[in-house]
Design goal:
Elements lengths: L12 E3 L2 E3 L3 H14 L5 E4 L6 E2 L1 H16 L5 H5 L6 H8 L5 H19 L1 E2 L3 H10 L3 E5 L4 H10 L8 E3 L12 H10 L6 E5 L2 H10 L2 E5 L7 H5 L6 E3 L4 H8 L1
Parallel strand pairs: 3-6, 3-8, 6-7, 8-9, 9-10
Antiparallel strand pairs: 1-2, 4-5
Helix pairs in contact: 2-5, 4-5
Amino acid sequence: MAGNIQRIQDLPMQIGRFSYFPDCDTILFMIRKERQQQNMIDTILLDFDGTLMNTNDLIIESWQHTFSILEGKEGDHDDIIATFGEPLHDSMERMFPEVDTDEAVKIYRDYHRDHFCDRIEMFPGMAELLKEIRRRDYKTGLVTSRLARTTGLGLKKYGLEKYFDAVVTMEECTRHKPDPQPVELTLAKLHSSAQNSLLLGDTMYDILCAKNAGVISVLVGWAMAVSEKEINGPDGPDYVIEEASDLLSILEKH
């Protein structure tokens, strides 16, 4: 039985009276077309910070450095965690109302930039997940509120550029998560529809962005900034995964 198995690219295809052997691009087009026609997921979007890349410690350290410079003391840990996923300018404006926001942002970003490459690492299983997603010919997009420069540095450090068909960073958006614009811009780049797409994230900003854009929302189990109440509430995610590979089981359902 096993001897009769053939790869699809080894099978001739019929067009009118002629047969031909499909190339990889044709096969990829056929797979994606079938997924669209059957209303299956064909596009996977991922957040960067806290989802793909563990930047949590660096973010906290950058906040504490900023508090030390501006107030001479540490900030409240829980208040810092609550900013995860929010545009930095908005968080700074709220945390330091008596300070020029641009100055506070600069202090934070200078520290963050100087320590970025040494203090980040991928979450367990994410590299393998990206490889498997690529092997299965899903379209992929990165949707982040991070600046393009450090996003690019993070992707380059781990050789991840090849796994993303589109990247949307903070500079490209006039409105940010939870507004749907970041997801909508990414889907436009990918020529994908919301009904065939999924977003994997680690904050309620990601989950609400996904819901507002009409895509399936998936929360990672290693999220630091989402409570059980939020998970089980009316705006909670469609799915929660405990390990990166669990996403594959969700894809098999859609």
